[in-house]
Amino acid sequence: MYSPQSTSQRTDPTGRPGAVVPETEERTRDRVLHAVLEEGPVSAAELGERLGFTPAAVRRHLDALSKQGLVEVKLVANQATGAGRPARRYVLSHRGQTKLGNDYLDIATDALAELGRMAGPKAVNAFAARRFAEMERRYRPLVEAAGERLEDRARALSEALSADGFAASTRDIGLNQPTASMFSVQLCQGHCPIQDLAREFPVFCDEETQVFSRLLGVDVRRLSTLARGGHVCTTHVPVGRHQTPQPAEKRTRVKITRQERPR
Hints:
alpha+beta, Muramoyl-pentapeptide Carboxypeptidase, domain 2, 2 domains, two-stranded antiparallel sheet, 10 helices, 49% helix
C-alpha cells in the first residue's frame, strides 16, 4: 500500500547523497493516474483505500489531473438495484491514455494507411490477423492452464492482457443477484497501447474479439472500446443460467411416484 508521505532515496536539496526526502507531488500524482488506469472506473474512496491516501488528498490529486485533462468523471448507476443517484467514477481521458505510452503510433498508422493504398484493405486485415494470431499463441497455454471454468479462464486471460500493458480486470455480473437469470463475466481493459491505431483501423478490435472468443470457447460480445469512445474496453463473456434448486418436497413426491409405479 502506498502512503501519502512516501519517501524515496535520492539526493536532497542540500546535496547529501542518499538522503530520504518526501515524495514529490508529481510522483504521487503519477501513482494516482496509474491507479485510475488499472482500476477505473473507480471512486475517489476506492483510490484512497488502495493508495493509503486521505479522502481530501486523493480528491486534490484527482482535481489536478482533471484540470490537466488526464482523467474525467463517469456517472455509473448502481449495478445491484439501478436506483439512487449515479456514483461518480474516475477514468482516464484520451489524453491520459496517450500520456501513458502510445509511442510510434503515428508512424504505424501512416505505414498501415500506405499499405492499404498500395495493396488494398485485405493486406491490412491480413496484417492484423497475423499480429493477433501471435497473441493467441502466447495466451493459449495460460488460459488452458486455468481449467474448464469460464470464470477462471477469463481471469487468466485478464492477467495475460495486464502483463502486456492492457490494465485488464474481470467483474462477475449477476453472481450475487438472486433475481438475475443469467451469469456473466465482464472482461475490462483500462488501457489500449494501440488505441489510436484501432480507431483508424477497426479490424484490430475485431481480431482481438475473435481471439478472446477462441481462447474462452464461447461467443463473446464487445460492449464498448476505447477506440470507439468508450471509457474502457468491455467484453461480455456469457457463463450460463443460474441453476434454481428444486424444492426438496417436490423431489420427494417424484421419487415416491416412481416407486409406486406398477410394474
